[in-house]
Amino acid sequence: MIKLHDLYFKPFISEKEIDSTVQRMVDEVAADIKEEVPVFVGVLNGSFMFVSDFVKKYPKPCEVTFIKLASYEGVKSTEDIERLIGLTQDLTGRIVVILEDIIDTGNTLEEIHRIFENENVKELKIATLFHKPEAYKKDFKLHYIGIDIPKKFIVGYGLDYDGLGRDLPEVYQLKTTQHMTNFVLFGPPGAGKGTQANFLKETYNLVHISTGDVFRNNIKNETALGMLAKSFMDKGELVPDQVTIDMLNAEVEKNAGANGFIFDGFPRTNAQAKALDELMDNKDSQINAMIALEVDDEVLVTRLLDRGKTSGRPDDADEQIIRNRIKEYYKKTAILKEYYMAQDKYCGVDGVGSISEITERLIKVIDRL
Ligand code: IMP
Ligand code: MG
């Protein structure tokens, strides 16, 4: 992901794909032109990289020149008229191939056709590296098209967002969801995960998605997914990951305006972690970190036994049960720790201390995400 000015962009078209596309276009053009020497006309500024790579690959002699769109003030001071400048040489009888970085609405192309009307060229062909078919509103033929792309704003390989991004060798697409802070929160029983999640969601305006709660609510409200989940549970089977993912997806969609999400109780397996990555990717977002509260076993046992004295929860009263739960936690999360470590996203946070001390440590980690 990259940030230009105030906006975030994600990788979209690789250098390699651009390179093979340019090569393909060169082959098509060269095959059509045969023996004549064409004049390639790049439209500045965006096309400079495309033109450069294109003519380097072009197998036969050719001429290269550039034109540029310039804004002039219109008759009324409010209206801008765009004119192409830079066309100085005589193109009478020549084969001219316009090299465009991108054709969007086709307005620029209309202007190109207008100025070439009186040039008496032998042929005027249009080649564009990128094309947005859904945005194109003109009838001019596009002779060579590199890659059709959706009607989304892109940068890189000559294309800019307000001056930035032209220098990037690959193409990025504007993220429809801007920066969010999403993390999965882990902690052994007694680590104070619930308490901390509550503070963090207030501090950062995040939505806390506790998978257990999501399940219970779906079943209680008899949603389609809830009933589906229940049908597996009633048979004593595990609820398939896809059902859980669909529930989480609905939760994420319900809170589309959130600054981010705290996932709690999910994922538990590698497959689920991958599914969660995909879910976030579909939302043009990502999991930024696995944050795990780290507390020494003996401290946990003492805390939970203390809690058991007042809460009356039977599973908090038996030391052996507590130790087993802690062991179980480490057994299950080891895999996830590895998964997120491989993505450089694992953040262990010391969970021993006062509640506010631990919150401070978490805030330090989250502020860096
Ligand atoms: P058109 O005149 O609407 O076809 O748009 C042509 C010009 O708009 C291009 O030469 C670019 O300068 C700009 N443009 C259109 N779409 C994009 C984009 O996705 N990223 C950056 N510039 C764009
Ligand atoms: Mg252009």
TrEMBL record:
Assembly notes: Monomer.
Annotated NCBIfam families: PRK00279.1-3 (NF001381), PRK14527.1 (NF011100), PRK14528.1 (NF011101), PRK14531.1 (NF011104), PRK14532.1 (NF011105)
Major localization class: cytoplasm
Protein name: Adenylate kinase
Molecular function GO labels: AMP kinase activity; ATP binding
EC numbers: 2.7.4.3
Reaction catalysed by this enzyme: AMP + ATP = 2 ADP
Family: Belongs to the adenylate kinase family.
Domain remarks: Consists of three domains, a large central CORE domain and two small peripheral domains, NMPbind and LID, which undergo movements during catalysis. The LID domain closes over the site of phosphoryl transfer upon ATP binding. Assembling and dissambling the active center during each catalytic cycle provides an effective means to prevent ATP hydrolysis.
Domain Phosphoribosyltransferase positions: 21-161
InterPro entries for the chain: Adenylat/UMP-CMP_kin (IPR000850), Adenylat_kinase_CS (IPR033690), P-loop_NTPase (IPR027417), PRTase-like (IPR029057), PRTase_dom (IPR000836)
Sites where the protein binds ATP: G190, A191, G192, K193, G194, T195, R307, G353
Residues in coiled coil: none
Localization per record: Cytoplasm
Biological process according to GO: AMP salvage
Gene Ontology CC terms, in alphabetical order: cytoplasm
Stretch list, region NMP: 210-239
